[in-house]
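User: I'm writing a tutorial on reading structure tokens. Could you give me a worked example: one chain, its sequence, then its tokens, then a sentence or two explaining what the tokens reveal?
Assistant: Sure. Here is the example chain.
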Amino acid sequence: MAKATTKKDLNDLEKKIGKVPKFFKELTTNDPEMFDLVMKFENHIWDDGKLTKKTKKLIAIAIAAALRDQHAVRAQLAGAANLGVTKAEVEEALRVTFLLSGMPAYVYGKAQLDEIMKK
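And here are its predicted structure tokens:
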């Protein structure tokens, strides 16, 4: 039996990843057991391991920019600030994206960065 998801659970998730996708919120009522399973997997992936949460966040931003997924880039950038990720660090990660995914991915990520992280 799945535990009931509280508003605090969703607030904690938002602090961790940035903006909580609508489908996550809907899972809390439509399929709480699936929500719990997704959250266990999510926690397993994001928890510090050989890589820190901060490093993983930079990887996630770079991947989202390479895919040109606006929602994912913005959500990852929103969560980055909660981990102490700086604009300069994101800039550097986006340069790697540029090297491997080309100018459009870099420009896409940079545009989101400049809008979300003003400093």
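What the tokens reveal: The mean pLDDT is 87. The two ends are 45 Å apart (CA to CA).
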